[in-house]
Amino acid sequence: MLVGMTYDLQQDYLAAGYDRDEVAELDSPVTVEAVKAALLSQGHDVELIGGAGPLVRALADGRRWDLVFNFAEGMLGLAREAQVPALLDAWDIPYTFSGPEVLALSLHKGWTNAVLRAHDVPTADFRIVNSMDEVEKIDLPFPLFVKPVAEGSSKGVSDKSLVRDRQALRGICEHVLRTYRQPALVETFLPGREFTVGILGSGRECRVLGVMEVLATARGDACAYTYANKQEWRERALYELATDGPAEQAAEVARAAWQALGCLDAGRVDVRLDERGEARFIEVNPLAGLNPESSDLPILCGKIGLEYAELIRGIMDSAMRRAENRAPRTRT
Ligand SMILES: Nc1ncnc2c1ncn2[C@@H]1O[C@H](COP(=O)(O)OP(=O)(O)OP(=O)(O)O)[C@@H](O)[C@H]1O
Ligand SMILES: [Mg+2]
């Protein structure tokens, strides 16, 4: 099978003038090579495509693939992760991971919370702040946690995200609105243990691979899995498989969120315990990082003994099943 690969490389955007923080969510050649090697080892032919721009050019040139392994994060706009799958849908080319509607929704953590609450999946109480005058109207009790509404890789999350009074709330909201040019998400601070839940499979057919507790070392920020903890994870973060009662509760919340949103193939759901010890959804990653060394999902797979190539095979199997079951198209 000819498998195309769509992705966005940090180095391409650095060369185009973006700064380190702006490209934090994008991929390195190590990840592209690792996915490619896994696909080749499974007997596929592989063609590297790149992001939305090169994909548009390739489609216009008449290039086609049996399936595209898509993990392009995109760069511009709040629907940036949806752009490549939307193009592939328009050309009727099957691909891995969720469709544009799920990727556009899930990148916006406020809207995702609202949809999940409608499905009775527990989240933190939250407000979306679009401008500074809205900060004064926030009626949630402190402490609160503030982050950009649509970023990943812990961008915009630091020890300043945890705020205990209105003055600090104003400061961090102003910082988020100005720096990230998008709304700030203000949530009730969840003070308990943090888990990231690895999931394989689509919607109702998904299965939880494992639950990994995320902890900080003495050198890391204790309040949250901050940008600094994530970037310097070897010194600042600790990851441990968890199987106790709260971990099982986290797995249930993650599974319910994955199914309610209709996420496809594989990903991660982040969960934290509230002040009463109840698990609450934080966010879903339907395009989870695939760096074999440093991304949370491959780290979790390593801990449960699932080799990287087997993770990629599981993702491909799930996507190929969907491709086979597609409605036949009438072509003129
Ligand atoms: N309401 C909250 N209460 C306490 N901590 C929170 C809350 N929301 C987020 N955090 C902390 O901030 C971290 C980053 O938040 P979140 O997972 O939403 O960001 P992200 O950048 O999308 O993460 P990822 O790197 O997994 O894509 C979480 O892992 C958690 O430690
Ligand atoms: Mg997260």
TrEMBL record:
Pfam families: Dala_Dala_lig_C
Enzyme class (EC, first level): ligase
Keywords attached to this entry: ATP-binding, Cell wall biogenesis/degradation, Ligase, Nucleotide-binding
InterPro entries the record matches: ATP-grasp, ATP_grasp_subdomain_1, Dala_Dala_lig_C, PreATP-grasp_dom_sf
GO molecular function annotations of the record: D-alanine-D-alanine ligase activity
ATP-grasp domain span: 113-317
EC number: 6.3.2.4
Coiled-coil ranges per UniProt: none
Family stated for the protein in its record: Belongs to the D-alanine--D-alanine ligase family.
Name of the protein in question: D-alanine-D-alanine ligase
